[in-house]
Amino acid sequence: MSGNVSELHATTPAGEYLAFTLGQEEYGIDIQKVAEIRSYETPTRIANAPDFVKGVVNLRGIIVPIVDMRIKFSLGTPSYDQFTVVIILNIGHRVVGMVVDRVSDVTTLTPEQVKPAPEIGSVVNTDHIVGLGTLDERMLILIDIDKLMSSADMGLIENTALAA
């Protein structure tokens, strides 16, 4: 007999998560996937790329596709201001940039602070949500960034990166 809570803790160990904001929600991703955080700069557009792929940037000789998560999650028209940042991620053997509204902090979560994700409709496909991190009044939606970035609907990133 398997319990959801023990399975959740097996896949989401206590650890450090980078907290960032998209629209009104706060999300968290495993800090170990984050290579760096950069201010937003307009990427070079790639023909026939989906809307959420803003283009590519040259990061010290590596061509990095830039994905705007606000467009991907249909969170309205994104605006780019001094708080807009690009989180550079190491996903498998590739580097991907993720545009978010702002980054707040790095948060350490204990297993007790991670709750299973509810089975409800969400902006993010719940397959990519590994749980909810609770910190006093804050709640972080914890995303399995590997699974999200390698999912079928994001597969165009791989093609875009190869085309560049």
Automatic annotation (TrEMBL):
CheW-like domain location: 14-154
InterPro entries to which the protein is assigned, alphabetical: CheW, CheW-like_dom_sf, CheW-lke_dom
PROSITE patterns xrefs: CHEW
Subcellular location: Cytoplasm
Keywords: Cytoplasm
A Pfam family it matches: CheW
Biological-process GO terms, alphabetical: chemotaxis; signal transduction
Organism lineage string: Bacteria, Pseudomonadati, Pseudomonadota, Betaproteobacteria, Burkholderiales
Name of the featured protein: Chemotaxis protein CheW
